[in-house]
Amino acid sequence: MKMMLKMPRVPRPRIAFTRQMLIKGLKGLEFLIGLVIVHIGLFGLAATTYGMLVFQQMNLGGVMIQNLVDPVSGYGINGIIVAAGIIAVGLLLMRRVISIPFRYLFRFLGRRGIKAPKGIFGSPLASYRAIVRFRNWFLAKVAYLQGESAKWKAMFMLMKSPYSLLRSLGFSPQVAVGLLFAGSTVGTGVVVNETVFAERSFSRGDPGIYLAPGDSPVSYVTDPEEEGYNTLRIDLGSTPVRAITIENVSIGTVFTGSALPSGVQNAVEVGGTASASTRLEVGHLIFEKSRCKKLELSDLQIHTLIIKGNASDGQSIAPSPGTSRMRAIGGGHHQASDMTHSGGTFDRIWISAPTSNVNGKVDKLTLSNLYTKGGPCVLTRMNVGTMEILLNEVGVGDGFATKEFTVATNVTAANLTVVDNVEVTISEPATQ
Questions:
Q1: Could you tell me which of 305, 283, 327 has the C-alpha nearest to residue 417?
Q2: Residue 150 lies in a domain
Q3: Burial class of residue 77 in the structure, from the number of CB atoms within 10 Å of its CB (0-12 exposed, 13-18 middle, 19+ buried)
Q4: Fewer CB within 10 A of the end CB, N or C, for the chain?
């Protein structure tokens, strides 16, 4: 009799493939891809930043590494941007693992009653929305501040309008403020705007020492009438200036209560400094329509000299032939902007180059309608491309034998035009 043993059937274990397992697998794959991408970005950043120089010096990898690095290092700043973007994408993919320490921190803070931002690390969309909310909040504050600034600026412009009108008529800052106080035109509004909220400036005609191209003085006195300093001085250095214009001003003793500074004889002085061994280099100089006690030109090297239409109480024009080149002053992006002033009263105009062995440079220098008394107008120690001396009146009324308008023999010019200059009896103007 044959016996049959029947073994019990053991069921095979079945692993249920759930949605949760799929999500976890995708998260793991996301992390691995992010890790690989981060390393690619770091390699690109290193290759772009250091290039083959570091690899060659350290002899890393030989030809194989060189073939990998060379194509990347040639991209420059674009390569750095792309590499940084790749690293950012990799970190975003790795955010779930990276954020684990922060989650523990947020849980700790939550137990202390401090709320943490929700969804920042779990969703790129949530992160983007949070950034957008911050951006909109920040731009709203900026727009508000810009609007307030425009309103305050408009208010101060209205407050100072009477002051600006008086300055345009030729009054000094001190006289203009005095008249406004005397007439009670705007009360304290002008004083607040012009002394507290507004800095002294060359364009407004405040006296002082200006280091070109700066519009604010590096040295000044609080009250020129009280302290006796009312000079408009420009010091030129290594920075070339595109243009300097001074026009429609009264200088020296031509107005009541003014005097030349102690120990100074020249009302207008333009040129280099002998003690500093410097000269002024000027592309185009125009001296026109001015009234001077004396007009003296000396130690000038000029390519084209034009002396035309000047009237003087005695003149001696004796330049010498020269070989000076044509000249223009450039400086590209680093060249200074224009310095312009119109109107006002000063005891002296002084433009110089005081820094030792550093010539001052300006492409166009214009001095127009300078009404002076008490001292000569002197142009000296300059190298000029084109100089125009036009329609000036010079003299003190002491006769033609004394030469008030002089061009010395050490003034040289490659091209010279001298026309319509006449000798007439001219006296100094009356004090105004």
A1: 305
A2: no
A3: exposed
A4: N
Query: In which region does residue 191 sit, left (phi positive, over 0), alpha (psi from -120 to 50) or beta (all else)?
Result: alpha
In a domain, 151, yes or no: no
Q: How are beta strands 231-235 and 241-252 bridged, if at all? A: unpaired
Residues 162, 126, single domain; the answer is no
CA-based nearest residue to 271, from 353, 344, 209: 353
Single out the residue of 351, 335, 381 nearest to residue 240, CA to CA.
335
H or E element: which one contains 41? Answer: helix 19-58
Tens-digit pLDDT string for the chain (432 aa): 556 666 666 666 665 556 777 777 777 777 788 788 887 877 777 766 655 455 555 555 556 556 665 555 555 566 667 777 787 877 777 766 666 666 666 666 666 555 555 544 455 666 677 778 878 888 888 888 878 877 777 776 666 556 555 655 555 555 565 555 554 433 333 333 333 334 666 666 666 666 665 666 655 555 455 445 678 888 888 888 888 899 998 888 887 777 788 888 898 999 999 988 999 999 999 999 999 999 999 999 999 999 999 999 999 999 999 999 999 988 777 777 778 888 888 888 999 888 889 898 999 999 999 999 888 999 999 999 999 999 999 998 888 888 999 999 999 999 999 999 999 988 888 887
Residue 206 in domain: no
What is the pairing mode between strands 405-407 and 295-308? parallel
Beta partners for 286? 366, 388
Residue where a domain stops, chosen among 99, 133, 167: 133
CA 115: distance to chain centroid? 47
Question: Is residue 129 in a domain?
Answer: yes
Q: What does the DSSP 8-state code read for residue 117?
A: P
Specify whether the CB–CB gap between 362 and 420 falls below 8 A: no
β-strands 291-292, 339-342: how paired? unpaired
Strand partners, 415: 304
Range of the domain at 336: 238-423
Task: Report yes or no: 382 and 287 within 8 Å, Cβ to Cβ.
Answer: no
Work out how many domains the chain is built from and give that number: 3
Do 419 and 336 contact (CB within 8 A), yes or no? no
Q: Give the whole-angstrom CA distance, residue 202 versus residue 219.
A: 12
**338 three-state secondary structure:** coil
